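For the sake of transparency, this paper describes our internal protein records without simplification. The tokens are whole numbers drawn from a learned vocabulary of local backbone shapes. One such record is reproduced below, unchanged from the form in which we store it.

. . .
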Amino acid sequence: MTPLEELHGVSREIFDRALQACDIPLAFDRHLRFEGKTLVRHSSPRLPSISQSLEAYKDIFVIAFGKAALSMLNALLERLPEKIHLHGICSALEMPKKRNRHIRYFAGGHPLPNEGSLAAARATLALLKSAKETTFIFFLISGGGSAMLELPLDRKITLDDTIAFHETLVSSGATITEINTVRKYFSAVKGGRLALAAPAAEKLSLLLADVPLRDLAAVASSPTLPDYSTLAECAEILERFHLLEKFPPAVREYFERLQRNESQAARSRNEHQDAVAAFQHAQFDTLLSNHDFVNAARDHAQSLGYKVVIDNTCDDWDYVDAAKYLLARFHELRSQYLRVCLLSSGEVTVNLSRNPGCGGRNQQFALQAALDLARCENEPLVVLSAASDGIDGNSPAAGAIADTTTIARARSYNFDPEATLARFDACTLFTALGDTIVTGPTGNNLRDLRILIAG
């Protein structure tokens, strides 16, 4: 085995071990348990446990949505006490083969909503409307929930319009926080509105955070947490990315009407106040985040004898800028250490062309990095970039691995790497080279991991 082949295997092993360490059932066991009908929560090792009896609640609702909806729902159902009055909604990527008879299941869309997304949102709002003071609600929320549970505030906006709205946002180059700020003013289920739908019920949101921890409200566009964004912030994002002109007419007219109508803006502020009141009956815990993901990768890389450095500086940067920054840092570190592993978690952004090819932000980043690595011919250097959910953009891959030979091998297969980048068609190139990472949907979602390794 050549040094490059060995590094390919090591980088993939680090990624796989990090995924395994972020097992959702294990995360549930770390954070909560049931003693009879008493829920015991361990929100932090530094804080005392919180006990809460469910005996007084006549109904238990479970609302699960996002890429990890099925994993989270099954983990909770396995731990719930018996003989409770249970009702629930689950919007996941696909319909499960084994279903709980108390749960209504929907196949929501991602990265774009579908009819299942809208049907799940309608069913959720109808169920929450029936909640009372004697109802306890578990919200199981993971990344991807923004698309998989969706319903326009303006009921005149069609599904096709809603899909085009989401597609325009995700291809705009805006950060996830900016995208979700706009979504909150579009949607009947975001920006705290699920909490508003059941203000008197006791609510516990369990989150798998696919956003920076400084902005937990961005998970699935903050359906159950108070929304502190403003209409002015939304308007600034729309203007900076020239979004209104790209939206379908019905969506554009809705946002223009929203900005013109002072009473509508006032109503939005009142909703924010109501959300704060509703949040008095709400709590949340973060079960897993991308910090857990990257720290697990660090621990395994260290066990293999690598000097490990974590640098998340470029989170939410454009993929080109992120690649330049991380490669510069990588070259600096490898001048100091023989065996070094630079880790970076979070996400990079892409501004898609009108008709992109097959790929995603991770493969785009990897191919951009390959152009830099090509200058280091015959050196054992590898860059892996992959998504924890197993889905990179519109491709069947989670990401890809690049090395110092990637560009030369691609040219020998008659690929033009620069043109491939411009077409956002990196998956085609990496598939031909045998360097894609294919895991299938993992049932998890803790953002992306970039591994730059030398040894």
About this structure: The two ends are 14 Å apart (CA to CA). DSSP finds 17 helices and 15 strands in the chain.
